[in-house]
Amino acid sequence: MSMPSKTLFWLLFMISFVSLLSEPCCYAASDKDMIIEVCKNTTYPDFCIGTLRSDPRSVGADKKGLVQIITDKALTKGKENFALVKKLLGRATDQKDKGPLTICFQRYDLVVNRNVIDVINELNKNNFFSASIMSSASVDDIQDCVDALAGAGLKSPLTSQNKYVQDLCNLSVDILFTLIPK
Ligand SMILES: *[C@@H]1O[C@H](CO)[C@@H](O)[C@H](O)[C@H]1NC(C)=O
Ligand SMILES: *[C@@H]1O[C@H](CO)[C@@H](O)[C@H](O)[C@H]1NC(C)=O
Cβ of 36: how many Cβ atoms within 10 Å? Predict the structure, then answer.
């Protein structure tokens, strides 16, 4: 390399190095703004912000990506709840407990094996309205479980877990509505 091109090389190297260093700062700042902007339009902005900020995948994600993250969380948590329902049902001896838990079993089967899978597929096809319908279906299906437990006066660790998945699904519906073409 001749002297001028060597200097140029180092100059370019330094510029890219410095811009590389400054990237984390600026990406992070705009991502925070993005999350706040998106969450402003939802029913529970604090829940929205907390849910998305706690997930490293939200860095650099667009609105659709944020819905995918929330849906993925709903699937993970939904599967945990389904497992809990199966465990509680396996232990239940009283018909008074078995009835409502059987309803919860059937509904969670729909949530994790149909609804959430449909949401993911519809999202991938950019069918935001259909995705919102299936996400709402999860909220309703879990509500059947909530009502069955309450009707039987059954105190269960499921109660708060149910609400968490419903909150995630309702949050995804809020964001999906802003993605539906007007
Ligand atoms: C929030 O809602 C307003 C009013 O409907 C809309 O103009 C804006 O684009 C929305 N912002 C986001 C990030 O969805
Ligand atoms: C979910 O959203 C619907 C529609 O806004 C609302 O009626 C329902 O109470 C919400 N569910 C929960 C568990 O917050």
Answer: 14
Which residue range forms the structural domain that includes residue 134?
Answer: 27-179
* Residue 175 CA, closest ligand 1 atom number: 14
Quote the ligand 1 centre to 75 CA distance (angstroms).
Answer: 27
Query: Which domain CATH number covers 165?
Result: 1.20.140.40
Neighbours of 108 (CB within 10 A): 27
Is the pLDDT assigned to residue 13 strictly greater than 80? no
CA distance 9 to 103: 68
Domain contains 155: yes
Q: Measuring from each residue's beta carbon to the nearest atom of ligand 2, which residues come in under 6 Å?
A: 139, 163, 166-167, 170
| 5 Cα to the center of ligand 1, angstroms | 49
Locate all alpha helices (DSSP H) within the chain, ordered by sequence: 3-40, 45-53, 63-91, 95-110, 116-124, 128-151, 158-179
73 is a domain residue? yes
User: Ligand 1 centre from 178 Cα, in Å?
Assistant: 7
Structure tokens at 103: 């309803």
- Contact 178 CB / ligand 1 (< 6 Å): yes
Q: How far is CA 153 from the centre of its chain?
A: 30
Residue 7: per-residue pLDDT: 59
Instruction: Give the integer Cα–Cα distance in Å for 145 and 1.
Output: 73
Confirm whether pTM is higher than 0.85.
no
